């Protein structure tokens, strides 16, 4: 049997198999462990190879025997070494003789998809790209509230109060439906402000509206199901349906909302419709009463589901908030989704689903299979925020701030572009959309704008089919009124070339 020549210390400048650097912040035992493990995985040390005793290696490396013993113990525990009484320590025979690829090649193989199988549903999703706005905010970014106006001190006091009164029972697994007191607070709020027909037992707490869309899709739809989506519409709905193997049917949106008659002609037997009736994204229109009744009648007649995404309807400027579609539903065909991401702050990651009574058990079972239950800490704080009247006061205050920003944005857009664009979606929410005339490419303009720290969203990206309009979705939630004129000026420069 070949005997491994004992390693020499790197400090003595000799080429070695096992190296240590006594000046490194990495513990010595970890250096020894890493060195052996790397050489075993690269096949420099074959199975059955005898390794030096801990005493011998410690002497050669001029270190204490303790880190060597710790490294050897870890390698034995993980199966890289095996120890034989009376014989010594050897490289384990359990390591595969012919690995498919060294570890360093796995990423390359994954990138090229050669010889690496993933599900067809995962492969159908677009390639993930880190959002360009993840680290930096900029004027006109969509979906960002005025975080600088959030009552942080009040929120911190509520967090501290909830933490001080924390009990051991709060550390256990909770209900997959969420915290009872938050569900009760949301039910009361929705009944009075949004006109919903619901009880606390129908409400599930989720990690934002995106998880709500995903859970609803999994519960309601089989792979291959045909589903109406608004055209243009919310792009992440498209991703959810693609990931579930469903076929999205783009149904045009006009000034009255989704065109139900067009949807029936395109696919009467669709299994569901995903809509945002109170404030459609991205066009911002409100679904008319007649269209709402048409949609409900269609769903009842064919046994379809309606998923109502009510993401920011608290902010309405020229009238009271529009009542929900769910409140008109006499046949329990509507699943209602809401979120606190837009009205409080995005990282909170708390949303909710209002579920028809006969589906609550199925939603709970699906949720439990995904992540057991939602985290309780922030739920308690949100419940206190609502029950203490802070939520209602915050909404009233922010409605005034956003109304002023909306007014300034509309005035500046009209001054800068005049008849070159049509401004839509100004009645509610935290964004407005401009539909541009001419032959411009909004995605190219958006890239130019981003280079100038202007985060405009191309309207064409909201289309599932070919884009019939070019333009921009402009968020004003995180853009102070004083920043808006300069932002519009920069956008005009980008358009000019």
Q: In words, what does this structure look like?
A:
The chain has 497 residues and is α/β, with parallel strands linked by helices. It folds into 3 domains: 10-91, Arc Repressor Mutant, subunit A; 150-392, 3-Layer(aba) Sandwich (Aspartate Aminotransferase, domain 2), CATH 3.40.640; 395-496, Aspartate Aminotransferase, domain 1 (Alpha-Beta Complex), CATH 3.90.1150.10. The chain is built from 16 helices and 15 strands. Strands 4-11-10-9-8-5-6-7 form an 8-stranded mixed β-sheet, sandwiched between helices. It has a 4-stranded antiparallel β-sheet with strand order 12-13-15-14, with helices on one face. The chain has a 3-stranded antiparallel β-sheet with strand order 1-3-2.
What is the class of the largest domain in the CATH system?
Answer: Alpha Beta
Domain tally: 3
Number of strands: 15
Tell me the number of helical segments per DSSP (H or I, 4 or more residues long): 16
The CATH topology assignment of the largest domain is: Aspartate Aminotransferase, domain 2
Low-confidence runs (pLDDT<50, min 5 residues)? 1-15, 103-113
**Major beta-sheet overview:** 8 strands, mixed
Short description:
This protein has 497 residues and is α/β, with parallel strands linked by helices.
Keywords:
single chain, 497 residues, alpha/beta, Arc Repressor Mutant, subunit A, Aspartate Aminotransferase, domain 2, Aspartate Aminotransferase, domain 1, 3 domains, eight-stranded mixed beta sheet, four-stranded antiparallel beta sheet, disordered N terminus
